[in-house]
């Protein structure tokens, strides 16, 4: 029984690892695909398209620099700091897309202005339910639409974008390596390239089902062993009782 359970658990963990690997590979492939126009995936009024998490998108608009906020508790290279987030009023949409311009050790950054072209990774708003201790300042605990509406007067998209490249006029900033002005004039450090599982629920599903199947076999082996022990115990008890009666 012990050998059977150990084998089933080990094979199940192996299949579970294969499931995670398939999903990580699929998410990585999606994050590296060429950008598509944001308008092809969603509008300012549409729900977030979950199947396109990590998809690179591009759009043009104008900075709403006065609505810049800072998301606290963001880790980068072992340090804790802030995401610098500035909404972009998307051309022709009437709604603003929050753009993570980069990382800063302090909640300070120059506010960008003017027209901008953005390329970055599409992300859903965060589900963190942390409470904002001071709603009057420009620091928020999580990048949620519910938190942003207190700071932005324009309608917002149901997601945000991690900036990869921004270009304002003749100046282009890249967050894929080194520092970036991100359209604001002050150097911000690039945020990490996303590696979330923005993939179909069926990706690697066969491996997950195999893992569950192996664990079921392990549980069945334990059941058979317990049943055999109980039957053996009951049989020995009945034999002892019969011998005692005969004596």
Can you describe what's shown?
The protein folds into two domains: 2-24 and 204-246; 33-174, OB fold (Dihydrolipoamide Acetyltransferase, E2P) (Beta Barrel), CATH 2.40.50. Helices cover 32% and strands 26% of the residues. The protein is built from four helices and nine strands; from the N terminus they run αβαββββββαββα. It has a five-stranded mixed beta barrel with strand order 2-4-5-8-6. β1 (36-37), α2 (38-41) and β2 form a beta-alpha-beta unit. It has helices spanning 2-31, 38-41, 145-148, 205-246, and strands at 36-37, 56-63, 69-76, 79-90, 96-104, 115-124, 139-140, 159-168, 171-174. The model has no long low-confidence stretch (mean pLDDT 83). α1 packs antiparallel against α4 (205-246). With 247 residues, it is an alpha/beta fold.
- CATH topology-level fold name of the largest domain: OB fold (Dihydrolipoamide Acetyltransferase, E2P)
How is the largest sheet built, in terms of strand order?
2-4-5-8-6
Structural class: alpha/beta
- Assembly type of the chains comes to single chain
Element-by-element helix/strand order: HEHEEEEEEHEEH
Q: Give the amount of beta strand, in percent.
A: 25-35%
Distance between the termini: 37 Å
Q: Profile the largest sheet.
A: 5 strands, mixed, barrel
Number of domains: 2
Low-confidence stretches: none
Radius of gyration: 27 Å
Q: Give the total of beta strands.
A: 9
Q: What are the defining features of this structure?
A:
247 residues, alpha/beta, OB fold (Dihydrolipoamide Acetyltransferase, E2P), 2 domains, 5-stranded mixed β-barrel, 4 helices, 32% helix, 26% strand, elongated
């Amino acid at each position: 029984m012990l050998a059977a359970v150990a084998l089933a658990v080990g094979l199940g963990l192996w299949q579970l690892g294969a499931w995670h690997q398939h999903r990580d590979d699929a998410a990585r492939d999606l994050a590296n695909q060429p950008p598509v126009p944001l308008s092809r995936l969603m509008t300012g009024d549409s729900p977030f398209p979950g199947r396109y998490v990590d998809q690179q998108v591009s759009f043009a608009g104008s900075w709403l620099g006065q609505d810049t906020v800072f998301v606290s508790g963001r880790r980068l290279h072992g340090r804790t700091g802030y995401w610098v987030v500035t909404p972009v009023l998307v051309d022709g949409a009437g709604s603003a897309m929050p753009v993570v311009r980069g990382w800063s050790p302090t909640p300070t950054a120059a506010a960008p202005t003017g027209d901008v072209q953005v390329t970055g990774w599409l992300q859903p708003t965060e589900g963190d339910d942390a409470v904002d201790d001071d709603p009057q300042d420009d620091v928020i605990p999580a990048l949620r639409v519910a938190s942003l509406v207190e700071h932005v007067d324009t309608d917002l998209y149901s997601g945000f974008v991690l900036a990869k490249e921004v270009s304002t006029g003749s100046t282009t900033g890249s967050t894929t390596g080194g520092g970036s002005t991100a359209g604001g004039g002050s150097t911000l450090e690039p945020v990490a390239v996303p590696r979330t599982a923005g993939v179909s629920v069926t990706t690697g599903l066969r491996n997950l089902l195999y893992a569950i199947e192996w664990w079921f076999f392990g549980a069945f082996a334990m059941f058979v062993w317990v049943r055999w022990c109980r039957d053996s115990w009951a049989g020995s008890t009945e034999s002892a009782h019969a011998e005692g009666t005969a004596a």
